[in-house]
């Protein structure tokens, strides 16, 4: 029996010392990532609809809440993809170089192309946003050094960051954190024109845990399905327990007067332990279920998961343009509010502008359908050409 059969986190290095080169993608990962891409579009349509990010109405609350699963899945599966990509490269140095260049590219895209897509303006001196793509880019650059650690150490440190960072809730917080602390943990503040939405902690821990999980994905499908299912059930149960105990894991304790809505209203910025348990637990269950999903719908969703960056770069300007069309139909002209500095700090929603939820979901469905065709084309191009440059988008 091999060491890797006894220990799922044991390095799976062949006797020759050369990394294995997987011949095919893992469809379950692409499928779950594709689901995350679809859910993400709901929230980004919501930004332009004027519907608030949560509220007392169950419809509005769950329109926001269902999208909470996106960022954890992004960060975790990005770590898994790093591991799998590294198995195709000749050395850790090659992977490290890729992570530095890919991470820097994502940061550049966030602060330029994506920022313009969000706003349809060029007011760079007054507004930029450090969003999810910025966070993924910075974490990738940090992973360029992390990958030199033993796999067990990466897993342990990643889990420790996720589990322990809410200790900060019990110590006095600086009234005016310095620049480094604002980037690392105390986000939501402006650094010149830059508004920090996604800080690095605990997301670097999520990516590290995802990297270690990459070893699990190399196991036989039934074995990794079993591990994913047990992890999902355990993490979800732990979330329920911690939320009921109401002592640790979220700076915003459960407001029992709000019932289920209060129970699910965990903190995303920065992502609390309870938020991550609430979202990553079901993600693992979905990974387990996705091992046996098939059919036309599953194949369509998988297309989005194979080209996540391409989808991301297309979906924001498409949704923004769709919002302009809706405004033109409803108001007779495009509302200037749509050219404000969205999504973190938009100006107040104009009176009478806010969409109904049926309009929001109709626009969401039409945009996802429209995105399928270019994403399918690009997925085929990437599969046919196998170019290193294509891996950057």
Strand tally, please? Answer: 3
Strand order of the largest sheet: 1-3-2
The gross shape turns out to be globular
Question: How big a fraction of the residues is strand?
Answer: under 5%
Distance between the termini: 40 Å
Major sheet details: 3 strands, mixed
The helix content is: 55-70%
Instruction: Please trace the helix and strand order, writing H or E for each element.
Output: HHHHHHEHHHEEHHHHHHH
Mean pLDDT across residues: 91
Structurally, how many domains make up the residues? 1
Q: Runs with pLDDT <50, length 5+?
A: 1-7, 11-23
- State the helix count: 16
* Class by alpha and beta content: mainly alpha
Work out the radius of gyration.
21 Å
Which labels suit this protein?
single chain, 393 residues, mainly alpha, three-stranded mixed sheet
Structure report:
This protein has helices at about 5, 25-50, 60-65, 70-85, 90-110, 115-120, 130-145, 150-165, 180-185, 205-215, 220-245, 260-265, 275-290, 295-305, 310-330, 355-385, and strands spanning about 130, 190, 195. The protein is mainly alpha-helical and about 400 residues long. It has one domain. It has a three-stranded mixed β-sheet. Strand 2 (about 190) and strand 3 (about 195) form a beta hairpin. The radius of gyration is 21 Å and the shape is globular. The protein starts with a helix and ends in an 8-residue tail after the last helix.
